[in-house]
Amino acid sequence: MTTSSFPFLDTATLRTTIDRLTPEMIDMLSDFVAARSPSGAEQPAAEFIERTLIDLGLEPERIVLNSSLLESNPLFSCPCDPDNGRFNLLARHLPRSEGGRSVLFNGHLDTVPTGPEALWARDPHEPWVQDGWLYGRGAGDMKGGIVCALMALRALREMGLQPAGIVGFNAVLDEENTGNGTLATVHALQHAMGKARLTDFDAVIIPEPFGETVMSAQVGVCWMFIEITGKPAHVAYMNKGVNPIEAGIAIMADLKGLEAEWNAPEVRHPAFRDVAHPLNFNLGRIDGGEWNSSVPCTCTMGIRFGFFPGVTAEDATRAVTERIRACATRLNPDLTVEISSRGHYSPGCEYDLDAPAMQVLAQAHEKITGVPPERLACTATTDGRHFALMTDIPVTNYGPTARNIHGIDESVSIDSMKRVTATMVQFIADWCGIEEYQA
Ligand SMILES: [Zn+2]
Description:
The chain is an alpha+beta fold. It has ten helices and 22 strands.
């Protein structure tokens, strides 16, 4: 039997408290999802979170995105949208007395496009609950995880408690296409541009929806735009033309060969040894052509490719560029190929799950669920890389279970959100300590 200092977190009380707060949690997430926030236009969701943080008695700071301050940072990605005065929101719960250990919950406000809304069971921006899942664009990725973090503070207060260390909440823009939002906060913290400091935090948890796993590593991700110009002609004289769309398809097929080479077992990063297909090359967009009976003039392709931690974005981009150019030359020397980088330019990273804070998180998960968390080597990128590569602060991703993120009928499990909220409360109690709530 261990002795606990007062106040004490009782797990049974925590469970009943979270049960009682579940309608509030669902309402908060529903309003958050309804506040549309596609990458580049996150303002409605930012304003919703600003109000929510104020309602929680916190004082959110706006961290305005200023790309010119970030351009020289190796983690800066060429923006897909203008800054437009967009801002992150950073708020801190401050304890009564200094000294407790601290944590920052970091989550992104932006969401990916819905795809054809007709394919959804209902309007993706009018969230609905069905069979224990809350549906809507962004419900899983990752508004649900942000709500878990906010509800953890709410649940503590409902029990008459509060964290005995600083607990930060950072809601950022532009994660899905660049990561420049979190970069802006880390930059502001490092340069003491606001009230908060990087030294305020000695752990970071990113509640991305990876099924209550803790993340051990993530791949690097780069975006690339390939503009191919051929030679237009009437199809009656097709052999006088050069078809850039057909060339684009052939180039993509060739890139799949490079993808296979990079995934080969003998060259795999050890963290990804047990992952079936860690590196994915995706043709996400294609535009081109004017007329069914004309050999087209141009074809533009937007691709995304993965690469292992330890490889720089620059080296990965160079290798893919060389492969594309060699293929185009083989196909037809008359093809013109322009390649540009815009969007993700994001190296991979590993997470130190042996760091004390990460051990405490794993133990908190086990206390709540009865089993240790699984470790995930992630085949996507997350904003965890900024903390892992730019700071000494231990960081990982830990968030609820979601379905169909980036797909149709995205949803998040309400039971999983409740468990993640409970784990976050347990983590706060074990890592930061708790004290009596003071309004
Ligand atoms: Zn996400």
